From TrEMBL:
PANTHER family in the cross-refs: TRANSCRIPTIONAL REGULATOR, MARR (PTHR42756), TRANSCRIPTIONAL REPRESSOR OF EMRAB OPERON (PTHR42756:SF1)
Record-linked InterPro entries: HTH_MarR-typ, WH-like_DNA-bd_sf, WH_DNA-bd_sf
The protein's name in its UniProt record: HTH marR-type domain-containing protein
Record's keyword annotation contains Transcription regulation: yes
PROSITE patterns (alphabetical): HTH_MARR_2
Signal peptide: none
Domain HTH marR-type: start-end pairs: 1-102
Gene Ontology MF terms in the entry: DNA binding; DNA-binding transcription factor activity
Keywords: DNA-binding, Transcription, Transcription regulation
Domain of life: Bacteria
Keyword hit for Transcription: yes
Organism (species): Bosea thiooxidans
Length: 111
């Protein structure tokens, strides 16, 4: 659920389809993730007033309150994962991952 929470921390209240795109997921996997977030009390679906077919996903107060703890956990994991790499190696790793993501994004946009 972490990628979905992070996407909602960046932009709350987005349509479910937009949330899915932001985490590079589609269809049933997005529905399942949002269902899990709802069951955990971390998100809620709200029908768009202008288009009742659209469900906007909003964080709950519980999810907002968890953000500092989640960010600390992510920071701790990243620190442990990268502790044996030099600054140069970390920069190279980030550069490679960014190129991979850009390539995947380009693949998704192509028909």
């Amino acid at each position: 659920m972490w990628p979905y929470l992070w996407a909602l921390y960046k932009k709350d209240g987005v349509p479910q389809v937009v949330l899915g795109r932001s985490v590079k997921a589609v269809g049933p996997s997005v529905v399942s993730a949002v269902n899990q977030l709802e069951r955990a009390g971390l998100a809620r679906r709200v029908r768009d007033e202008r288009d009742m077919r659209v469900a906007n996903i909003h964080l709950t107060d519980k999810a907002r309150a968890l953000r500092p703890r989640i960010e600390q956990c992510v920071s701790d994991v990243n620190e442990r994962a990268l502790q044996f790499l030099s600054d140069e190696e970390v920069a190279l790793l980030i550069s490679i991952v960014e190129k991979i993501n850009a390539g995947l994004d380009q693949e998704v946009r192509q028909p």
